[in-house]
Design brief:
heterodimer; A: mainly beta; B: mainly beta; 6-stranded mixed sheet; 5-stranded antiparallel sheet; 11 strands
């Protein structure tokens, strides 16, 4: 089975802290994504990566950065956490196959609370 | 950028009833995905549609993509408590050879016994 694993299910951090959310996939997928999910707003794409060391901004990249040093790992970094970054964060990965993407597989989510 | 609009935003149905969730795109869909999410958890892939007029079924769930490839529907027959959750449609908005997968805002489905 495809497995996408996020390092934490629940996280509580203080305002101003630097926060790292880690995501690992075991299926050799090229594409990896970070989303945040908020009530009434659905899933919003923060950043995505289609190769090692490659990254592209999604729809809401402000206040976030990412790192992809190895194919299987995609990290989301909150440089200075703020209360408006309290949210559910979801990581996903997908395969690039003949010019199109296959379905994305999701991790279990990290519920981050910034106090 | 591609936008997906889902309707309704929430739905409450009696167990055993049929229901339909719609997903409308502002642009032509080249890949449309349906996912289900249990509260507080990750998304589970249900089905993918790519061709105009395509229809797929899995157990009591049927998804269709219209001929113009701008609207999809998800139909559940004889709903059960296990169908409760949030349903999301996602679209493959390929950007310069890389995927940018975007989602609708989700439909929260409640099944009353």
């Amino acid at each position: 089975d495809v497995k996408v694993t996020q390092s934490s299910r629940y996280l509580v951090k203080r305002t101003g802290e630097k926060v790292f959310l880690e995501c690992v996939q075991d299926m050799d997928h090229e594409n990896m994504f970070w989303y945040r999910q908020d009530p009434g707003l659905g899933l919003r794409l923060i950043y995505f990566s289609y190769d090692v060391k490659m990254k592209e901004k999604g729809d809401i990249p402000e206040g976030y950065s990412v790192s992809r040093e190895k194919k299987e790992r995609f990290s989301l970094i909150l440089e200075s956490a703020s209360t408006n970054q309290t949210s559910m964060y979801l990581c996903a990965s997908s395969l690039w196959d003949r010019g199109r993407s296959t379905e994305a597989f999701f991790g279990q989510g990290t519920r981050l609370t910034v106090v | 950028s591609q936008e997906l609009e889902q309707s309704p935003q929430s739905l409450i149905v009696q167990e055993g009833k049929n229901l339909t969730i719609n997903c409308t795109s502002s642009k032509t869909l080249y890949g449309l995905y349906w996912y289900k999410q249990k509260y507080g958890e990750g998304l589970i892939f249900l089905m993918m549609l790519q061709k105009g007029g395509e229809e797929k079924s899995h157990e009591k769930i049927t998804a269709k993509l219209d001929e113009k490839k701008q609207q999809s529907s998800l139909h559940i027959t004889a709903s059960q408590p296990s169908h409760a959750g949030i349903y999301l449609c996602g679209a493959d908005g390929a950007l310069q050879g890389a995927q940018k997968l975007v989602f609708g805002q989700g439909t929260r489905l409640t099944i009353n016994p």
